[in-house]
Amino acid sequence: MATITVRVSDEEKVFLEYMSKFLGISLSQIIKEYTLDELEDMYDAKVGDDALKEYRENGEQALDIDEVMKQWNVK
Q: How far is the C-alpha of 30 from the C-alpha of 66, rounded, in Å?
């Protein structure tokens, strides 16, 4: 397993240690889990934003839900 060093201020270290005890997980787990979760959320948002931008630039037309339901004979 690879090792990454992260530099934090003294105050940040105190907070991270507190959260580690508060959540009952190791400091490494906190940094790994919550960093990866945030990055995954950022990735998902960026992919969605890029897709929407491409959709708009290509002049695509969206249908509202009522139109879709009519097309598929859904009541």
A: 45
Question: Which tens digit of pLDDT belongs to each residue from 23-67?
Answer: 999 999 999 999 999 999 999 999 999 999 999 899 888 888 999
**According to the 3-state scheme, what is the secondary structure of 3-58?**
CCCCCCCHHHHHHHHHHHHHHCCCHHHHHHHHHHHHHHHHHHHHHHHHHHHHHHHC
Tokens of 53: 């931008």
The answer to whether the CB of 26 falls within 8 A of the CB of 20 is yes
Residues with Cβ within 8 Å of 6's Cβ and at least 6 positions away in sequence, in order, are: 31
- Start-to-end C-alpha separation, the chain: 55
Backbone angles phi, psi at 4, to 5 degrees: -125, 135
Neighbour count for residue 38 (Cβ, 10 Å): 10
